[in-house]
Amino acid sequence: MLSLIARTALTKNSSVWLPGIRAMSSGGPTAPFTTLSISHPATAVTHVELHRPEKRNAMNRAFWSEMVDCFSQIAADPDCRVVVVSGAGKMFTSGIDLMDMASDILQPEGDDMARTSWNMRRIITKYQETFSVIEKCPKPVVVAVHSACIGGGVDLITACDIRLCTQDAWFQVKEVDIGLAADVGTLQRLPKVIGSRSLVNELALTARKMYADEAKSSGLVSRVFDDKEAMMAAALELAGEIAGRSPVAVQGTKVNLIYSRDHSVAEGLDYMATWNMSMLQTQDVMKSAQASMEKKSPKEVAFSKL
Ligand SMILES: CCC/C=C/C=C/C(=O)SCCNC(=O)CCNC(=O)[C@H](O)C(C)(C)COP(=O)(O)OP(=O)(O)OC[C@H]1O[C@@H](n2cnc3c(N)ncnc32)[C@H](O)[C@@H]1OP(=O)(O)O
Asked: Cellular location of this protein (predicted)?
């Protein structure tokens, strides 16, 4: 049982930020899930833990659909303002479950090539949704990686908003080694995360491992920690910093950052203007501005749920 101490937390019955200590624990999968453990280590913070440690958190059939259900619920949950994702056990994840892969992806049904291909397309699109839901979720997602992050793990983390790792972490775009071009997000998102196109190409074409220091210097992760305990404490502290701020401002920031990543500056500004023509009318602006004038932290403001 992994027991981690949160350095800060919101008090249970208030939106006002106060320092506190909460235990963050790794039990087993949380019903109705069989591959995920969901907990609430601090008010407004949801912890999603990949939980198949005996199989190195390999992504089996259940995982691919449970992530969609989980993040759809989180997106609609007004009590959640920020998410932390991590892996239970020895490593973050060993990627797709190679045993399950054979029964699903490698044997699509269909009476002829057109129908088989159509079914295959539907399956791939469904798999893509497993990580796209993270990006579509307006709540920021902080991912904390320890030890190995292989194949589908890289697809997952590139859909997250903030990436942290331990000093012993390594990342591997492993798909070419199992005979396929990565098809659930890495090839689309990694080039937007890492500045160097050459490095992305090298990683994806050779499947070489990238270790923590290079992950940091290339921009894949923003911070590296000595061990998992330190990383999880920092992830929770970071989540608390985000959760203590206006959810209107925070979620609007995530949505517009992703929109601007995929559009021109002019299109991004246009989208922003349309977004804020309603969102600027929130009471959060007045509350935050008043707190600022009074030299208070935004974390001291009681924001309504969103
Ligand atoms: C449309 C779909 C798109 C998605 C594409 C995704 C692609 C990918 O993810 S490519 C990457 C696939 N993954 C791998 O190739 C990794 C394979 N595993 C390993 O290399 C090692 O297991 C690993 C280095 C991760 C861990 O080594 P360690 O010595 O710590 O543990 P093991 O004894 O090897 O494993 C423990 C048990 O876990 C099972 N397991 C590990 N990884 C997987 C996996 N990916 N799929 C299924 N099962 C896995 C392993 O068989 C052991 O099980 P058991 O023998 O029953 O104890």
From this structure: Peroxisome
* Residues designated catalytic: 96, 152, 155, 175, 183
Atom of ligand 1 nearest to the CA of 95: 9
Q: Cα of 211 to ligand 1 centre, how many Å?
A: 19
Tens digits of residue pLDDT in 184-242: 999 999 999 998 999 999 999 999 999 999 999 999 999 999 999 999 999 999 999 99
Integer Cα distance of 262 and 107 in angstroms: 34
Return the pLDDT at 221. Answer: 98
Question: Above 60 in pLDDT, residue 16?
Answer: no
CATH 3.90.226.10 holds for 2-243: yes
Å from CA of 153 to ligand 1 middle: 12
Distance 95 CA to ligand 1 centre (A): 7
Residues with CB under 6 A from ligand 1: 55-56, 58, 90, 94-99, 105, 124, 127, 148, 150-152, 174-175, 178, 183-184
Strand order in the sheet with 210-211: 148-150, 170-172, 210-211
- Domain-wise residue ranges, the chain: 2-243, 247-300
| pTM of the full structure | 0.93
Q: Which residues contact 162 (CB under 8 A, 6 or more apart)?
A: 140, 141, 142, 143, 222, 238
* CA 99 from centroid of its chain's CA atoms: 25
CATH architecture for the domain at 247-300? Orthogonal Bundle (1.10)
